[in-house]
Amino acid sequence: MNKQDKSNLGWGIRWPAPAKLNLMLRIVGQREDGYHLLQTVFQIIDISDGLVFSQVSDGRVCLKNTIPGVREEDDLTVRAANILKQETGYQGGVCIDVEKNLPMGGGLGGGSSDAATVLVVLNKLWGLALSETRLMELGLALGADVPVFVQGKSTWAEGVGEKLIPIDLPKAWYVVLKPQCHVDTGEIFSAKGLTRDSKSIKIPDFNSGQVQNDCLSVVEKLHTEVRQGLDVLSKYGAARLTGTGACVFVQFDQQQEARNAYSELVSANEAYIAEGLALSPLHKQMSEIFNI
């Protein structure tokens, strides 16, 4: 491969931005600045958005297609690219094409994952050589979930999203339903009835079955569609809410069991079937292409 070929490596191809599920979410306190202190477990799953990065002749950061109602400069992917430029003084630009598959307002982390993919991939394509730790710090300024996707592993998280510990999770498959509603995270976290004083637990407590989501009762009251989705899934197992919703899910030990449930649900629901992953497909692809 010649130097010209190497300079184009990674450009113009699809990079995954995978979804996540919160297998547990406890709110254990609130800081004076209003941010909530959480304990949660992130499971990366194998459904994803896709991002393609194209070179431009100037220093612009732009989108190939904007999201209706969202100004280009406010899009998380554009903000992520601009944060890299501000951090490093890099003068080049990029055009970002986002293939949006993950539902917005669903609690699957699509926007945060898109931003993380921008940070990880452009750090390499632009030759910035920022450490993963620094990328995670920059990501936290964009959203509490972004560092998890930068790290790209199943994770136990605490604080406001900055304390991350990789965690081994058993092999599992998930059927996810997206109720026909949009849940506003800010509205949930500002609700008066939200539990903010749950007792902190340890990883063994989670492993033994403590999987509550403290947002559930508030979300159910505001969005009856979520309650209906949980009722639908409860036929197949213990149905749970991911993040602040709206998506709900049920976990299976066997892939065929998940396939059977998905086939029964998909005709009447917006449904997904997903495998839990120990390593993000973004990081797997980075390793395959750049041998890192």
Write up this protein.
With about 290 residues, the chain is α+β, with helices and mostly antiparallel strands. Strands 1, 2, 3, 4, 5, 6, 7, 8, 9 and 10 form a 10-stranded mixed sheet that branches. Strand 3, helix 2 and strand 4 form a beta-alpha-beta unit.
- The first-level CATH class of the largest domain is given as Alpha Beta
Strand coverage percent: 25-35%
Count of alpha and pi helical runs: 11
In round numbers, the mean pLDDT is 95
The helix-and-strand class reads alpha+beta
Secondary-structure map:
Layout: H1 3-7, E1 14-30, E2 36-54, E3 61-63, H2 76-88, E4 94-99, H3 110-125, H4 132-140, H5 146-151, E5 155-159, E6 163-166, E7 173-177, H6 185-190, H7 203-207, H8 216-222, H9 224-233, E8 240-241, E9 248-252, H10 255-265, E10 271-277, H11 281-290
Parallel strand pairs: 3-4
Antiparallel strand pairs: 1-2, 2-4, 2-5, 2-10, 5-6, 7-9, 7-10, 8-9
Helix pairs in contact: 2-3, 3-4, 8-9
